[in-house]
Write a structure and sequence with these properties.
The mean pLDDT is 79. Helix content is 83%, strand content 0%. It is built from four helices and no strands. It is rod-shaped. By secondary structure, it is mainly alpha-helical.
Length: 115
C-alpha cells in the first residue's frame, strides 16, 4: 500500500515540475470551453432562426381578410365622399373616379403603406 502512495506522490511531483503537463491541461480546458461556446452559439442561432420563421409565418397568415375588407370599404367610402364633395360635377354613375377601380385601389394601398 505504501508503494502506491510513493508512486502517486512521485507522479504528482513530476507533474508539478513539468510545464508540459500544464500545457496539456490548459489545452484540454480551452478545448472544452470552445466546444461549450460552439454549442451555445449553435443553440442560439437555431433558436433565432426558428423564432424568425415563426414570426414571418404569423405575420403572413395573421392578415385577416375581414379586417382588410372592412378597412378597404372604410377608405373607399371616405375617398368617394371627398371626391364627390370636391368634384360635384363628376357625380354621374358612369365615371365616379378619374382612375379605374384598380388604379384607385393601388393609390389607396400606397397611401396607407406610406402612412
Amino acid at each position: 500500500m505504501n508503494n502506491y502512495n510513493l508512486l502517486f506522490d512521485e507522479a504528482i511531483q513530476q507533474r508539478l515540475q513539468s510545464s508540459q503537463w500544464d500545457k496539456a491541461m490548459a489545452l484540454q480546458v480551452m478545448s472544452k470551453v470552445k466546444k461549450r461556446n460552439r454549442l451555445y452559439t449553435a443553440f442560439v442561432s437555431a433558436a433565432a432562426m426558428i423564432l424568425f420563421a415563426v414570426a414571418v409565418t404569423l405575420w403572413q397568415y395573421n392578415s385577416d381578410d375581414t379586417t382588410n375588407n372592412a378597412m378597404y370599404s372604410f377608405v373607399h367610402a371616405q375617398v368617394n365622399g371627398v371626391y364627390t364633395t370636391v368634384f360635384p360635377e363628376a357625380n354621374n354613375a358612369e365615371t365616379p373616379y378619374m382612375y379605374g377601380d384598380d388604379r384607385l385601389g393601388d393609390i389607396i394601398e400606397t397611401a396607407l403603406f406610406e402612412r
